[in-house]
Design brief:
By secondary structure, the chain is mainly alpha-helical. Helices cover 45% and strands 5% of the residues. Strands 1-2 form a two-stranded antiparallel ribbon.
């Protein structure tokens, strides 16, 4: 149950997943932009985790400690074969990662839209 000022957990989860997919797309774009930069190491974002199925901690006041913000992503270096110039970016791999990130984003937006449709229907505002 949520009050007027709280966001339902399913919407928070969908929003976090969409933010994660967007941050992953940003890292992938940076990798592609540096595909010819000598000694550049390809990066990726750790997989999205909805906190083991539990509701995320809520930070209701700036002075409260709540750990990492919902939707924060950690960027890590990827291991891979390096070109003779030391670069580890594989454009084929980045394309596949970009497609995966797009699917994650589309899934999150679909969940968000369907949750809003359910809430509208329950209020009689279809």
């Amino acid at each position: 149950m949520c009050t007027v000022n709280q966001i339902p957990d399913v919407l928070t989860l969908a929003m976090s997943a969409a933010r994660h997919a967007a941050s992953r797309q940003q890292v992938i774009a940076t990798n592609v932009a540096n595909a010819d930069t000598p000694n550049y190491r390809a990066k990726d974002v750790l997989p999205f985790s909805p906190k083991d199925g539990t509701a995320p901690l809520r930070r209701t006041h700036a002075g409260h400690f709540a750990g990492a913000r919902t939707g924060e992503s950690t960027v890590v270096q990827m291991d891979g074969l390096a070109d003779p110039n030391g670069n580890t970016v594989s454009l084929e791999e980045q394309i596949l990662r970009g497609i995966d990130a797009q699917r994650q984003h589309n899934r999150a937006v679909t969940i968000y839209k369907n949750a809003l449709d359910i809430m509208r229907a329950s209020l009689g505002r279809r």
